[in-house]
Amino acid sequence: MAKGNKGNCCSPIVESGCCRVEALVSVDGRGQVVLPKELREKAAIKTGDKLAVASWNRNDMVCCLFLLKAEDLAGAVKSILGPVMTEITK
Each residue of 59-90: pLDDT tens digit? Predict the structure, then answer.
C-alpha cells in the first residue's frame, strides 16, 4: 500500500510493517472462505479446528479481521493484539 494512501482504514498497520499479505482468498455466495493449504500448514490449522474471528474497527468501520485458534484465544488477545494495537496507536 502506498504511503500516500492515508485515507484507508488500515494504512497505519501496513505502513508500520507489522502485517503482511499471506494469501488472497475469495468469499463465495454462502460467505465461505477457503484458506490455502500452504497457509493452513504454516499455521498448523487442521480439519475440525475452531477459529475465532476478531475484528478491529476504526471510524465505525471494520477494517481488519484476525483469525485465532479458539484454543489459544484466552491469552492470545493480550499477547498478540495488545502489542499490535500499542504500535498502531503510537
Answer: 889 888 888 888 877 676 677 777 777 777 77
Q: Given the C-alpha cell 497457509, which residue does it identify?
A: 39
Cell numbers for 46, please give them.
Answer: 487442521
- What pLDDT is recorded for position 2? 40
Contact between residue 63 and residue 88 where contact means Cβ atoms under 8 Å apart: no
- CA–CA separation, 79 and 74 (whole Å): 9
Fold classification of 11-88 is: Pemi-like Protein 1; Chain: D (2.10.260)
| Residues pairing with 33 in the sheet | 27
> Are the beta carbons of 66 and 54 closer than 8 angstroms?
yes
Specify whether the CB–CB gap between 81 and 57 falls below 8 A: no
The beta strand positions in the chain, using DSSP E, are 51-58, 61-69
Sequence spans of domains, the chain = 11-88
What is the distance in angstroms between the CA of the first residue and the CA of the last residue of the chain?
Answer: 20
